[in-house]
Amino acid sequence: xxxxxxxxxxxxxxxxxxxxxxxxxxxxxxxxxxxxxxxxxxxxxxxxxxxxxxxxxxxxxxxxxxxxxxxxxxxxxxxxxxxxxxxxxxxxxxxxxxxxxxxxxxxxxxxxxxxxxxxxxxxxxxxxxxxxxxxxxxxxxxxxxxxxxxxxxxxxxxxxxxxxxxxxxxxxxxxxxxxxxxxxxxxxxxxxxxxxxxxxxxxxxxxxxxxxxxxxxxxxxxxxxxxxxxxxxxxxxxxxxxxxxxxxxxxxxxxxxxxxxxxxxxxxxxxxxxxxxxxxxxxxxxxxxxxxxxxxxxxxxxxxxxxxxxxxxxxxxxxxxxxxxxxxxxxxxxxxxxxxxxxxxxxxxxxxxxxxxxxxxxxxxxxxxxxxxxxxxxxxxxxxxxxxxxxxxxxxxxxxxxxxxxxxxxxxxxxxxxxxxxxxxxxxxxxxxxxxxxxxxxxxxxxxxxxxxxxxxxxxxxxxxxxxxxxxxxxxxxxxxxxxxxxxxxxxxxxxxxxxxxxxxxxxxxxxxxxxxxxxxxxxxxxxxxxxxxxxxxxxxxxxxxxxxxxxxxxxxxxxx
Length: 561
Ligand SMILES: *Cc1c(COP(=O)(O)O)cnc(C)c1O
Fold this sequence. Notes:
The structure is a single chain. The protein is built from 17 helices and 11 strands. It is of the alpha/beta class and 561 residues long. It folds into 3 domains: 66 residues, no CATH class; 304 residues, Aspartate Aminotransferase, domain 2; 148 residues, Aspartate Aminotransferase, domain 1 (Alpha-Beta Complex). The protein is globular. The relative contact order is 0.12. It binds pyridoxal-5'-phosphate. Pyridoxal-5'-phosphate binds next to helix 8.
């Protein structure tokens, strides 16, 4: 039998692309194919905050996949794609309170989808057109929001919050070691950041050639903000020892505790050090605001009038966070994640610079890129690390800023903080739970559960500071792990809220990790009954664990209960 010539196969393959010229019937096929995929995903939904319950991931089998010999059709490939979503958490589900993962809004999904079809490349506006302009628009909107002058500032989207830190530190390197792009980095550069800052600091320092060991961690206070007097001591020592401060990294919202550094004080200190030591460079200040930037929408909220009607406890939390976030304009550069507190799909991160001429330090010469930039006016590819950049990140952010506006962002953020505050209130009232990060003003709540009969008024303090409590602490650590495991089993069946666990919320004074449970409220679908449920779930889990432990006691038959 004669095999099909390539012409026949090509004809079939052409059906698998959107038509280059207007063809509403074929567009209908595209849309219908997406709809069919969504239908199949929908069939995997249940009461549980997961898509399809039982999923087993076989890594060995996964490695055995081979490139098929023959072509498949859209239908078949769609099925393959959909099946990869088995077991996915449904982030928007009100029983989903695990981590800082946002459910994306519909406009942000369309914002990601359109570039997936038309494929703008943000390397230059001759291949991105208006999508490149949207990058300018988003930069302008966020600049004004955080207090930068949009006429002075500039911004580029990059690969995650980690990417924004990389850009910030790279600018710092070029300031401290002019010409490093050509000559390489000097050996005496250091980064100063808080011990609560995101661990990507190490990765970035390693990749940039600064070296992880040159990241100096400054201790934090109980609100997880950097201790400024400690920072000053470390900075002075460093300068006096001939080090160059590549960057002072201010964390404007730690991932879990929403610890916010005092940027104003860091800025004053930097200026004073430059003056006093007659430094020939100005240590770069980068603000890691990938989480905290969104609180800027409250900068001009009238907390007295409180038009949106938040509860007093929520207002206090919002105002407290905002007091520090409102100083973001003091940073030389800022990192912003739309895929966290901006409700956009991964990855959508903006690196903002207060003074656009600083990007000049990263610029390549045009003669190094002869085949690019022959037309158009704006060529980010001349100074970005990336060459090709997707437009999806930009349009998703652009979509949400327009969708929410200031009022919508205040509403969603205010609500999630209100729900987290409500949870903390319930946990504080409950006899067997202790909120570990009380005083936290953000959407994450860390707490610890104790067996009946433990005096929760005094236990934590003892566990924290008294080495004699080591055994007790370890026993309670393992108790919290058991509670977590039980909750997880229940959550898998749609009977409990899915929360997470941290194996070390922080260390005790004598060096033992303190295990904690964590609820991260980010879904706009979470309501008061869902936070009440968390407490109820915990109490039920306590009973289950007590039953199991009972049956394991010596003298009682295992499995007797
Ligand atoms: C998530 C996070 C990062 C890293 O951002 P990615 O977008 O995951 O690369 C950096 N800093 C803080 C404070 C974060 O929460």
